[in-house]
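Field: COMPLEX_INPUT
Field: COMPONENT_COUNT = two
Field: RESIDUE_TOTAL = 254
Field: MODE = joint
Values follow.
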Amino acid sequence: MNLDYFQLIDRIVDLNLGERTIVVEAQVPEKHTIFEGHFPGFPIMPGVLLTEAMAQSSGWLLLGVLKFERMPFLAIVKEAKMRGFVSPGQLLTIEAKVEHEGSGFAVTKAKGRIGKELKCSAEITFGLTPFPDPAFRVHMDAMAEKIGFPMQVLKHD
Amino acid sequence: MSSTFDQIANIIAETCDIPRDTIKPESHAIDDLGIDSLDFLDIAFAIDKAFGIKMPLEKWTQEVNDGKATTEQYFVLKNLADRIDELVAAKNAGTGA
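Field: COMPLEX_OUTPUT
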């Protein structure tokens, strides 16, 4: 995780466009100023960041489904549940699947675990729009490479 | 089995917290009920799921923006119900929705 840049996903472990699923890993840093305030003596990942991590995981899945032709923007978060604490240094594994592909929007369900223990879940809706700026698309391509997005699956879908 | 309009009205009432008895076939989803685009995403998801279709919202919006259709054709609820019935019929006929 690069919390300063709001880049929460480190690695794509699996992307299955046929099943419309993704698995990613997100390494929670050992130290960050966020943990100094949240909370003193009891550092835990804020629920909003866990929600954002689930949204980013879903976003990468949708980028694959959409073949990077549109960008998913977060629109609605439902049933966001923080089921347990996530601490500095832990490895968060997030699974997401596409629940519905609508016209101009998509809905995913995501779950975050530490080991086998379920820590968070949510149903997330995205608006799907063309990339508003070519530089943004270039940035997403670079990010995709950084986190190991398997570009070859786009050619075989 | 409830009518298409009734199903839509129930979805809108539940999704947008609008009293069910204020939702009429003549109601315009935007102008009369005040449903915004974000709430309409939620409604579209619920309608798509309930009827097993994919409402072509982007196509409809484009037609309105191009002046080829009016918002009334798609967003007055009795008309929306007709559009949904057409989509369901097309799906059942195997021509895709």
